[in-house]
Design a protein that fits this description.
The protein is an alpha+beta fold and 282 residues long. The protein has two domains: 135 residues, MutM-like, N-terminal (N-terminal domain of MutM-like DNA repair proteins); 125 residues, Helicase, Ruva Protein, domain 3 (Orthogonal Bundle), CATH 1.10.8. The protein is built from six helices and 13 strands. The strands form three sheets. It has a six-stranded antiparallel β-sheet, with helices on one face. The protein starts with a helix and ends in a 6-residue tail after the last strand.
């Protein structure tokens, strides 16, 4: 499943592609993929594309939003004449005729271009929200890791009574958003903190360093277009994320830690593969 850097990459692509386009029609080819009132959208113009956590937010007006979660295999592809661009889970739909058997929703724009929402496994969704619904949905989420709202004071208040391992805590969306498994492993290595330590045991200095490490790692991943393992999450232009070339620990079991030279280990924590250095991460 894509994490914050991968979704942010798709959002930036869509922002350049569909802002200022007017919707002339919407075809819903799979009813479970779209929830909303199409009549309220026809004739409206896309004014922005944003992101909150791993949710894409296509802004129509101050009280009308289209939220999308790509889940495992979602993708957006814009077809404008001979030009095709977008991003998400790679498939043969990058080059095949559209709509395809994976197309779930088609946005038709007044200029003749079309935006295809494809999803092989049908877990992804598009949901129309009012401003009140949007605020209710987002109220359940902690601040994005890269935003100023993630402060030392806030995170300390969230962790000081929690006995779960720190790695699991920083991956909980109700605490903070944007630190998936890859980025949690690397942030903890950068901060030299064991992923297995109880969250409440992290000292003030360690917590400040961890916040700096998380922001640094996730921003680096965004700059590199996210992480692409096994062809996952590239864009139609053939541009794959490159953070996998800079990982500190993830997928590096048996290789040397960049901090101290010891061998990276892999264990299971909360059902997730957890990569760490047993020597320098205390």
């Amino acid at each position: 499943m894509p994490e914050l850097p991968e979704v942010e990459t798709v959002v930036r692509k869509l922002r350049n592609l569909i802002v200022d386009k007017k919707i002339s029609n919407i075809e819903v080819l799979n009813s479970k993929s779209f929830t909303g009132d199409i009549s309220k959208l026809i004739g409206s113009t896309v004014i922005d594309v944003r992101r909150r956590a791993k949710i894409i937010n296509i802004v129509i007006n101050d009280d009308l939003y289209l939220l999308t979660h790509l889940k495992m295999t979602g993708q957006y592809i814009l077809q404008d004449g001979t030009i095709r661009a977008g991003g998400g889970h790679p498939s043969s739909d990058w080059v095949n005729n559209l709509p395809s058997r994976h197309t779930r929703v088609v946005f038709h724009f007044q200029d003749g271009s079309k935006l295809f929402f494809n999803d092989m496994r049908k877990f992804g969704w598009i949901r129309q929200n009012t401003k009140q619904q949007l605020e209710q949905s987002f109220a359940k989420l902690g601040p994005d890791v890269i935003e100023p709202e993630l402060t030392y004071e806030y995170l300390k208040s969230q962790l000081q009574r929690r006995t779960i391992p720190i790695k699991q805590a920083i991956m909980m969306n109700e605490i903070l958003c944007g630190v998936g498994n890859i980025y949690a492993c690397d942030s903890l290595n950068d901060a030299k903190i064991s992923p297995f330590r109880p969250a409440k045991s992290i000292s003030d200095l360690e917590l400040k360093n961890l916040i700096l490490s998380m922001k640094k790692i996730v921003n680096m991943a965004i700059d590199k277009g996210g992480t692409t393992f096994d062809g996952m999450y590239v864009d139609v232009d053939g541009l794959a994320g490159s953070y996998q070339d800079s990982v500190l620990t993830y997928g590096r079991e048996g290789k040397n830690c960049y901090n101290c030279g010891s061998l990276i280990k892999k264990d299971k924590l909360g059902g997730r593969g957890t990569y760490y250095c047993p020597t320098c991460q205390k």
